[in-house]
Amino acid sequence: MNNKNHMRIEFDSKSENESFIRTVIAAFLVGADPNMEELNDVKTAVSEAVTNCIIHGYEGKEGTIVLEATLCHRDIYITIQDFGIGIADIGQAMEPLYTSKPEMERSGMGFSFMEAFMDTVQVKSTPGEGTIITMKKGIGRNAR
Question: Against a cut of 0.70, is the pTM above it?
Answer without folding.
Answer: yes
